[in-house]
Amino acid sequence: MQNPELDLAFDFVQYTNRNIFLTGKAGTGKTTFLHKLKKISPKRMVVVAPTGVAAINAGGVTIHSFFQMPFGPILPDRLDENSNTTEKNRFLQKFNKKKINIIRSIDLLVIDEISMVRADLLDGIDTVLRRYKNRNQVFGGVQLLMIGDLQQLAPVVKENEWNLLRGYYETVFFFSSNSFKLSNPVSIELKHIYRQQDNKFIKILNEIREDKLSEASLVELQKRYIPNYSPQKEEGYITLTTHNASANRINEEQLKKVKAKIHSFEAEVRGQFPEHSYPADEKLKLKVGAQVMFIKNDSSPEKRFYNGKIGVVTDIEDDMIFVKCKDEDEVIGVEQAIWENVKYTINERTKEIEEEVAGSFIQYPLRLAWAITIHKSQGLTFGKAIIDAQAAFAHGQTYVALSRCKTLEGLILSTPVTNDGIICDRTVSSFNQHVEENQPDEKVLLNSKHSYYLNLLDELFSFRQVQYHIDKCKKLIDENGSVIQGNLSEMLKDMLEKGTRVLNEVAGKFIIQLKQLSAEDLTIETNEQLQERIKKGSIYFLQQMDLRYPDATGSKTSFETDNKAVRKPINETLLKIRELLAVKQACLLGCKSGFTSTHYLKTRALALLETPDIKMERKKEDIYTASNHPVLYDRLKTWRNAVAKKTGQPHFMIAHQKLLIGISNELPGNEKQLKAIKGMGKKKLETHGKELLKIIWEYCEENELAPSDKVIVEKIKPPRSDTKEVSRELFRQGNTIQQIAMLRGMVASTIERHLSYFVETGELRLQQFMDARTSKLIMDYLLSNPGKSSSEVKEALDDTISYSDLRFVRAHLTFLSSLED
């Protein structure tokens, strides 16, 4: 790449983890940069675009299909995984394992035509990437390359959609998204224009782009205004319109004027190729003499045509269409072209992300070209064009239309240019000005590269993520200990105290050493002293992992629970711990002989994909260690499963795990003994007691065992004190309502309810709870407005009146009413 800005952009992509906004005026080579990047970038990358046609042109997939996005607004408060809304559930739907593996292992996400991406859509991408990568980093730690020109086509947003989004975003553009603001991007503007060579025309385009059209430039443009201009057929002009209907009408009218036989060519569609992504007409109608435009670059070495080149059909044979372009002697024989709809997949053998062809669209790369919409002209180059600039209705349309032309002389205006027709969003202009004023240089690149490498080394040696997930899993176990069996809690405690906390302390000091060693020589990969420390550090931490995580694979770690809501998050967290340890071990092994970013990223990705997906729930052979009779326990579980299937009840509602273990340990022989086991209530005994005893007796007979002979002495429970009486007694002792609530471990409203009962009976007086003014105010209102709810009364009266006051006054009125009876 010989362009300095393009070289800088490539270096930021390859050697840093900075998010990049690559922009530039029309014709500066953004699309060419993307195609070259796909061929030479060492990073695992995925390319997406906002529309089907843009995705096909970029050689990628649509944002909506890859990230499974809804087409409507994605409100930020629906992106929270803790939300319970239907919209959230629809958005955060489960991805299949192949897609998850691709997301987990990508280093670089390229978004082409970023100018058309809404702010909420970028935040949606951030949510998905955080979900499957690193939830604590913007975009999950994936590097983003956003390519596009904000002065060209803007996102399409309906008024009702913007009404929903305006409460969350300043503008609809991607740079207003929360994720972009957090992403610390560098913005690189490509300045060398390849499409136009005329400095006068370039100056005019720049002024229109920036909404600063000078009087002199306006005069030059108006010279190109030729009303009712009717070009000769051989001149090869194309008309740019704002609406599809206008373009179709012009093409159909012009085709009718051609006195020749019409030929129809049906496209061949293979596999998966959505209709809205068709890059050409499904049914192409042509005549000899029709003006056409090439809609694909020539893939042959001769490069006879390019996307946007205009010509005239000179002959049509069975499988060939001949096109003659102006000022060229050679006629081009055009064969069918293939457009591929790719999807991303992971090669099972190499584990590399690959583009797999999901479908193809085969058609002649031509379309009628008397007219085309401005929207479809984006990215194309025309020698001659007729433009209706006055009909522009959206941001950037006039600029896009005019900048398609190579020269000012090749431009005809069917209507004069006015300031009303030049629509530029002021926010976009302000953002672009900021981009232009803050271009990164080689120093920023070097610092970003150094920071990136240090981040990778910190990730390599730090055990913070492992500690976070062990802490998380231990908390889940501790909070749900009553429904979990096994040794998992002890194992996690050992991993924390003997493993991660110790290693994190050592790693913290080691990383400080690495930073100091790299301070003088920022080129980490060639810093011999630093590389030697990395090698030794890798060997040391590998040895420590073997010592401190002897059961990192989970072979000796076991747990069991019949509560699915508890089992799932524990299994997921355990799997994450195993994955982190496996990846760290693989990366440390890979760095024993030295560190390079390319090798590290590849090693990390392969390790991620090779981590086995094994649940760590208790294995059959070492199950039921808490049970003295595991065979009986197994039978009891089989019985419970059958009852659950028959009745549709959850397993734990029939008999929870601890109850089954208790039964298998105690071997109760009668109903009294069965009832004495913790968890066997009266209702369970009535419903299932006889079946359970039958299973126990059969097991005992088979194994020549005697059921329990334990004598159950039923305890006589003392009469229970009335809870309201307890509250009243504490109140009489001089305690406030709040103090009683604290003493009894209850909420204040419960104590109020207890005491209001005694106001209602007359045993406590209203004056003990409020002053006379407050009680009179409430009583007068209630007597004058019977049937009013407490909230209505509170709203009508003084704000200082509480719901507690209302409760006591109503109780007092009930007492007074009873006296009248």
Describe this entry's structure for a reader:
The chain has 821 residues and is α/β, with parallel strands linked by helices. 47% of the residues lie in helices and 12% in strands. The protein contains 32 helices and 22 strands. The strands form 6 sheets. A 6-stranded parallel sheet has the order 3-2-4-5-1-6. It has a 5-stranded antiparallel sheet with strand order 14-13-12-11-17, with no helix packed on it. The longest helix has 32 residues. The chain is extended, with a radius of gyration of 37 Å. The N and C termini lie far apart (99 Å). About 2% of the residues have low confidence.
Could you provide a short overview of the structure?
By secondary structure, this protein is an alpha/beta fold. The protein has 32 helices and 22 strands.
